[in-house]
Amino acid sequence: MQTTLSCIPCLLKQGIKIAEFLDIDDLKSEEMMREILDSLKKENYKNSPPHLAKSVYSIIYKFAGTNDPYKEIKKYYNNEILKIEKDLKKIIDNAPNKFNAALKLAITGNIIDFGTEYSITKEFVLSKFEEVHEKKLKIDDSIKMYKKLKDAKTLLYLGDNCGEIVTDKIFIEHLKNIFPNLDITFGVRGTPIINDITLEDAKMVKMEEVATVLDNGDGAPGTVIENVSDNFKQIFYNSDIVIAKGQGNYETLSGIDRKDVYMLFMAKCDVVAKKIGVEPMSLICMKNF
User: Fold this and answer.
1) What angle (nearest 5°) sits at the alpha carbon of residue 229, between those of residues 223 and 232?
2) Does the N-terminal or the C-terminal CB of the chain have fewer CB atoms within 10 Å?
3) Rounded mean pLDDT of 17-38?
4) Domain ends where: 17, 47, 64?
């Protein structure tokens, strides 16, 4: 997905948001914003928004004096969702269609995203989990995905955000129960970016219990395939099926040159929602092509 003009103010707002979060003084914040504007002026807008975001966040982190300003809040959300892990599993156990419930639960976890305009609070997140049974997939390729998983030997599951990773693990556990011979690799970011998951988050939720964990070697808030490590790229193209969680992965992988990529995300951005023809905050399970 190419960057649109509407993506630019969103990137600028993210800079302002972090400056306020870290209490960076006005003079330093102004200097940071000028540098971000200068960087955006030189960018190629045919690239995806996460491609640009990587450059923007490198500037933000330079002024913030840290490459992981959300480190503690990421731990907080991982812990909070881990606390309700058993309750989330009950949602699946009590559902008439357990696969569908596990899938929607994983997609709902995608709401935990500090790169959006929404105010993310624990209460807001929990309220979304309570709506799982009521929500329907606005784009629903889940039957196609299930059939592909049934025949697959290898799955690459691309993770996205903190907290959400717990719902990913629950969904992967469910997949392992249905397809015990499925070999699953779980992909994380190579370096910290916003509240996206890294090896540290995967270790925290014990993802290694259900999948082989691998970082992609890059720090974009998505999967910019030309920038990931050679090993990760090989697994991406050689896996029988890819499940890509999150809007950032949709933005970077929509139209990618391989079959059987399934995008699972909540359409939190008006630009993305309009592009795929749904209302904002819709739950999406969409086959790439």
Assistant:
1) 70
2) C
3) 89
4) 64
